[in-house]
Amino acid sequence: MNEFSDVLNELHETKPELFHDRVLSERNRPASDLEIDDIEVPKDRELNKVEWNTGDLQSQLVERHPELEYDNIWDGLEQESGAFEESPEARREREPFGERGRTEDMELLAVYRPFHYYANNEWGVLFFEQNMEEFANRLHSEILKIGLWYDWDSTLKVVTYAVARHEVSHYLSELEALNIELRLGRRVYIPYQDNVYKVTYPNAGCVEETVANVWFFDNAVTGSRVRLQRLFRDIVRKCRGDAYRLAWDKDSYLIRVTENLLAAQINQCNPRPRDVPTVYGLLPRPYVQPWTRYENIPFMMTRSGGGRLGSILNRHRIRKTIRIFHR
Q: DSSP letter string over 260-281?
C-alpha cells in the first residue's frame, strides 16, 4: 500500500496540471523556516476515558486557570505569523479573499494547507500553539462551570481533537475534488477554491466551513457528554461569519443535505450548483484507497508558545489517526 506522499509525487509527475505551480517548483525544496513540532492527535478511545470525569479537582484547576467570560472566548486571539508565508505566490493566493482575509475564529487555532497548493513537506494541518494554549485555558474554565472536572491536559486533547476534525473535513473536501480530477482528467480543486470557497468565505454560501464546523462538535469525543457537546456547539454559534453560525442549527439529517450541496459545489465549481445529487455525505471513506487514510495527514504545530503542547499531546505515543464515524 503506497503512502499518500508517494501518490502525490507520482501525480506531480503524471498530472502536473492539477496542482498550483508553486507545488511543482518547491516540492524538492527543504521545509520552510517556520519552527514546527510534529504532533499526534489523540484517539477517541483515550479521550473518552471514564476517569476524566471523576474526582474533585475544582479548586486546583480554577486556581491554575482563572474564570473568563464565555462571551469573550474568541476575543484577543490574533492571527499568528506563519499562517501563510509571505511569498508573492501566497499573496496572490490570498487576494480573492479581499479584506476578509483568513482570520476568522476557527482559523486562529489551526489552518489546513492543501496539497494542491503546498509541497509534500509543507501541506497538512498546522496548529498555532500560543492560540491553542490560550483557547484551552478559556475553554477549561467553561468546562468547569458546567460541572465537568477535566484536568487541563485532557481539555487540551479534546480541543485538539475537535479542531483536527474541522481541518480533516477540509482534507476530505480536497480528496473529493481529487477523485473528480482523476476521473475527468482536469483541474477541479483550484477552480473550486477560486470560484466558490474564496468568494463566499466566511458567509452562508461557504458550505465547506459549515460542514467543517459540524464535524468540530458532532463526534464521539465531544458527544460523550451532552453538556460538553452543547458547549462545543455553542462555541461555533459564537464564531463570526454566517458559515460558522449555520453549523449550530445542523442535526444529523440536515448535515447530510449540506454535505450533498458541498459535493455539488466542488463538482460544478459553482457556489449555487444545479441538480444537487444525493450522495449522503462526502465520498472519500477511510481505508478504501491508500490516500484516503486519515493518518496520512501531517499534523504540525508552531512553537509560538514555547513548544510545550507537543509533549502533552504525544505523552502516550498516540497514533495520529483521526477516527471518523460516518453516518
A: HHHHHHHHHT-SS-SS----SS
Is pTM beyond 0.85 here? no
Beta bridge partners of 110: 127
Angle (deg, nearest 10), helices 207-217 and 152-184: 140
Q: Which domain holds residue 207?
A: 4-313
Residue 100 φ/ψ, nearest 5 degrees: -65, -35
How far are the Cα atoms of 116, 201, 210, 248 from residue 28, in angstroms, in the given order?
A: 15, 32, 35, 42
Contacts of 54 (CB under 8 A, 6+ apart): 149
The predicted-structure confidence for 105-132, as pLDDT tens digits, reads as follows 888 899 898 999 888 778 888 899 999 9
Query: How many separate domains does the chain show?
Result: 1
Is residue 320, in this structure, part of any structural domain at all? no
| Predicted confidence (pLDDT) per residue in 35-76, tens digit | 677 777 666 566 656 555 444 443 333 334 444 455 668 888
In a domain, 51, yes or no: yes
